[in-house]
Amino acid sequence: MTSAHQSDTTPVEIDTEGGRVLLSGRFVIGGVNAIVAETRVVVPEGTQNIDISGLTHIDTAGAWFLVDQERRAKADGVTLSITGASQAQAQLIETVRRNMPEAHEAEVAPRTVTELVEDFGRKVVRMLRKAAELTSFLGQIIATMGMVIIRPGRLRLTSVVHHCQQVGLNAVPIVALMAFLIGVVLAFQGSAQLRQFGAEVFVVDLIAISVLRELGILLTAIIVAGRSGSAFTAAIGSMKMREEIDAMRTLGLDPVAILVVPRVLALMLMLPALGLIANVSGLLGGALMSWIELGVSPAVFQSRLVSNTDVWHFGVGMIKAPFFALIIGVIGCYEGMLVGGNADSLGRQTSTSVVLAIFMVIVADALFSIFFAVVGV
């Protein structure tokens, strides 16, 4: 079989016969490019010899191609020899062969029990160190808030109002829609189960307790953690990248008082309000679906809600709100302070802020549930 690969004025002829490939003509970079572009198999499987005695000229690209074919064959367990080279061609091929990078396969050694225990220990130490740093940061925030209470003139009221709008007012649509849909889902799924026992009317109690006590404030906190917590980290982290926080310290200004306290206060003020909106929206969604699916009129829904729902169900959710807000604000601002001098650090800390804040909110909710169960509320 004979084929010709052309590139400008540098043709190379390739003959394949009986486990041997014969090259003739000029094997230079143009010919190599043409072969690679056509993605054709120049050296068929089972070939053991490449004869280049017919080549009148070969450059570094041609030598690389021959050495590469030699390595590919070796990887497949075939010994491929290059014969017929003149002294100059052999020297060029040998030079390319010596300078070709070695192909090392990454060997992953199995990890020993000692290494696994050591890795686990390092992670535990990092978690404990981070917990200690967060606690210290929380103490710094509380101390700064205490100074603000003693000297109200140090409170940056304009900044607090601005952040109240950002974390509270602007979040109302998404929080209300989320809670409304949660109420609809609860009513629909609850009615499907309670109908089997002829207890459809108890869907009102299910919706009221679930929304007021747990889901309303918990899902609101999760949305705020993803929306506002990440925004806190990104804003403070951007200032850290541009060295604005270092400039504040140089001027004798406290970054915690200027950047952190207004954000945390705004969050603690607005999260209970958002929780209230979520509760109302969730109940409206549940009432609408109960009316559609079960025929429970709004008047019956309201009557059963008022008569059978303890006010403490609402109180439990509202008690949780400031604590959730404090967790989200502290973690969001703390991760922003850890941002380094590059964009990769900013993205990494923002992601960590969201994940850690949501995790800690869920942990806090579980602890509150245990506490209220123990005290009988």
If you had to describe this structure to a student in words, what would you say it looks like?
This protein is elongated. It has 377 residues and is of the alpha/beta class. The chain folds into two domains: 2-99, STAS domain (Transcription Regulator spoIIAA, 2-Layer Sandwich), CATH 3.30.750; 144-375, no CATH class. It contains twelve helices and five strands. It starts with a strand and ends with a helix. It has a five-stranded mixed β-sheet with strand order 1-2-3-4-5. It has helices spanning 29-38, 60-75, 87-99, 113-150, 157-167, 172-194, 203-241, 244-250, 255-294, 298-308, 311-337, 343-375, and strands at 2-5, 12-17, 20-27, 49-58, 81-83.
Comma- or semicolon-separated keywords:
Transcription Regulator spoIIAA; elongated; disordered N terminus
What is the alpha-carbon Rg in Å?
A: 35 Å
Average pLDDT, all residues: 84
Low-confidence parts lasting 5 or more residues at pLDDT below 50? 1-10
User: Structural class from helices and strands?
Assistant: alpha/beta
The quaternary structure here is: single chain
Task: Give a count of the beta strands, DSSP E runs of length 2 or more.
Answer: 5
Spell the H/E element sequence. EEEHEHEHHHHHHHHHH
Largest sheet, if any? 5 strands, mixed
Number of helices: 12
